Amino acid sequence: MCTTQECPSRTTTTAATVTRRAALFGGALVAAGAALPTAPASAHGRRGLADLTYPLTTTFPAFAPGEEAARRTYVTIEDNGYYMQEWTGEGGHVL
């Protein structure tokens, strides 16, 4: 221990220090926020977005005549407990 004449006067600092624990906790919060799913663009009120999907029907436009889509019922709920259709056609990559 020193006397008042031997020890320099102590000054208090007001600068905030970040502990290792606080830095890790902050990093964990940022990572958790980035991992959360975001809402769709329409929920944010963006305008100018358009849904370009086209319903798949037998009248779906074909690339060339004769390539129209056709469907037939393959399995019914009454007979098999589930429903399935078979779609054929050369009209697009979806078929």
In short:
The chain is α+β, with helices and mostly antiparallel strands and 95 residues long. Helices cover 21% and strands 12% of the residues.
Give an overview of the whole structure.
The protein has 95 residues and is an alpha+beta fold. The chain contains 2 helices and 2 strands. A two-stranded antiparallel sheet has the order 1-2. The radius of gyration is 34 Å and the shape is elongated. The N and C termini lie far apart (88 Å). The mean pLDDT is 76.
Please specify the SSE layout and strand pairing.
Elements: H1 20-35, E1 70-75, H2 77-80, E2 84-88
Overall, the morphology is elongated
Taking all residues together, what is the mean pLDDT? Answer: 76
Percentage of residues assigned to helices: 10-25%
Query: Going across the major beta sheet, what is the strand order?
Result: 1-2
| Biggest sheet record | 2 strands, antiparallel
Primary descriptors:
12% strand, alpha+beta, 95 residues, two-stranded antiparallel sheet, 2 helices, 21% helix
